[in-house]
């Protein structure tokens, strides 16, 4: 009887070991598939979030440009007062920079609106380019970010160069308690930079 059990165990033990290896391999493969699926879904979700955030910037500049066209006088008054420096401290040295010619003022306003339209256009094109590559490899998705970066930089430049540097410092907009857009410009710059940083994060090339 003991001999019989021993002989049986010789055959059963290898079978159990083989079964254990098969089960272990299956579980590892299943875990790898789950991880791969999870990582893929997470990557797609993050990419979609990036596209939506870029689209929000594109929509913002679209509405800003549209409002400036249909409601021309609202921000036109702002541009007039900033360029003419009529609500600043009226320091003689700085007042030499004032632009009171209405034709030049109007063309400056046209340039701002055109810049807003251009920013919105590049951002929308960037959204389309990114969405077209949303399921592609990281290097292809990163390649599609270039147009989006251009659009975001245009938006950054508008408020940093146009409002903070030129308007705020050159035309002393900071001195005005009525026509001072530096606070809003700073907010818009922060939002644009946040989207730009988030868009650049992740998606490391494999």
Describe the structure.
- The chain is mainly alpha-helical.
- The protein has one domain.
- 82% of the residues lie in helices and 0% in strands.
- The protein has 7 helices and no strands.
- Helix 2 crosses helix 4.
- The N terminus is likely disordered.
Average residue pLDDT = 86
Structural class computed from helices and strand pairing? mainly alpha
Count the beta strands: 0
Order of H and E elements: HHHHHHH
* Basic shape: elongated
The helix tally amounts to 7
End-to-end separation: 62 Å
* Helix content estimate: over 70%
> Mind describing the biggest β-sheet?
none
Low-confidence stretches are 3-8
Radius of gyration: 30 Å
**Structurally, how many domains make up the residues?**
1
Strand content: under 5%
Describe this protein with a few key phrases.
206 residues; mainly alpha; 82% helix; disordered N terminus
